[in-house]
Design a protein that fits this description.
Length: 344
């Protein structure tokens, strides 16, 4: 709606030619004047030949030319001004479904990380869930507790069955240190940490032999923590390490991890986050009533979208299946939603 051409074009697409609205509007007025006048004229005009309100028709046309964030705003407007009987099923954008999924529980884990984040600028976490229990969504939720983390790309490495020299080689290639120098790599990390959050995700740490894992923490993580104590960042930036254990072997081994957040916390020792086996029926019910039903920008048949149905279809609350069933209720391709997670 910035210029006369755009204004006439959108009205033509929404209402067709030769409508009273086009003759009653002054198309060359400032935008702040034109928009209110346009809305008033559309309300006076009433409904189009298809029986839909004229304002609805215009918003639907504009929706085709904007990004998904603005689409969500337009969807909320459509739901607000249409009477309930005339409300149409609106295609819920994948990003909105993703935001809804991130609000399903994981409260125990997020509360621990939030508590640590408030008190420490350096911390390591051992993350482990049972199979199909949403590790990717848990990490995505943890990354959104601090705005700068949400917009900061984590450094993700699949450690697999590698030896320590191969792990250093991975880091050296990432930070463009050649020949590989462990001290220079650590310096590069700390240099970045001075101005921005630095987050490492080491995936499949359960594949490492316990002695290799312990030696890796001694060579890599402990020196980083010590350097941070001696030369802390000038800004309130964090240095985090997430160790992703898919098999539960790390916690069962003799590797030194902490299970308590009671101060003082030693940042050199990874903190073991509680596991999530399944979502209870109560957790799903709370999410539906306190999150989904409070939104005006989504449209769903709540008589079919109940906690009992969702719990049953997800094999009694297995998180991955809960997420898949939610996507199915919204007629959204799961892959489009899951791609917004951190790949591990």
């Amino acid at each position: 709606m910035e210029n006369e051409s755009q204004r006439r074009g959108y009205l033509f697409r929404a209402l067709g030619t030769n409508t009273p609205v086009q003759y009653r509007l002054a198309f060359n007025t400032p935008t702040d004047d034109f928009i209110p006048n346009l809305v008033n004229e559309l309300v006076v005009y009433g409904k189009t030949s298809s029986g839909k309100p004229a304002l609805y028709a215009l918003l639907k046309v504009i929706r085709e030319d904007v990004g998904i964030d603005v689409q969500a705003t337009i969807d909320a407007l459509i739901v607000e001004f249409l009477p309930s009987a005339a409300t149409q099923t609106i295609s819920t954008p994948p990003h909105l479904v993703f935001d809804l999924l991130l609000q399903v529980d994981f409260k125990q884990q997020t509360n621990i990380v939030r508590e640590v984040m408030r008190s420490y600028f350096t911390a390591g976490f051992l993350v482990h869930n049972e199979p199909e229990c949403g590790l990717e969504f848990l990490l995505a939720k943890l990354f959104r507790m601090k705005p700068s983390l949400k917009n900061n790309q984590p450094i993700v490495f699949d450690v697999g069955y590698r030896k320590i020299d191969r792990l250093w080689m991975q880091l050296g290639r990432y930070f463009r240190v050649d020949p590989i120098s462990t001290s220079e790599i650590l310096e590069k990390i700390c240099e970045r940490w001075q101005t921005q959050d630095v987050v490492f995700i080491f995936n499949k740490v359960d594949c490492l032999q316990p002695e290799i894992f312990s030696a890796w923490l001694e060579e890599f993580w402990e020196p980083l923590v010590n350097i941070g104590k001696e030369n802390p960042p000038q800004k309130s930036t964090h240095l985090f390490m997430f160790l992703v254990d898919h098999g539960g072997k790390v916690h069962q081994s003799n590797i030194n991890v902490s299970t308590t957040t009671s101060p003082p916390l030693d940042p050199r020792i990874p903190l073991y986050l509680p596991t999530v086996d399944s979502f209870t029926l109560e957790i799903i019910e709370e999410w539906i009533t306190e999150v989904v039903m409070q939104r005006s920008d989504i449209e769903i048949e709540f008589d079919q979208f109940t906690s009992e149905i969702l719990f049953q279809k997800s094999c009694q609350g297995i998180p991955q299946f809960v997420f898949e069933e939610i996507c199915s209720f919204f007629s959204i391709d799961c892959e489009k939603v899951f791609t917004q997670c951190i790949k591990i």
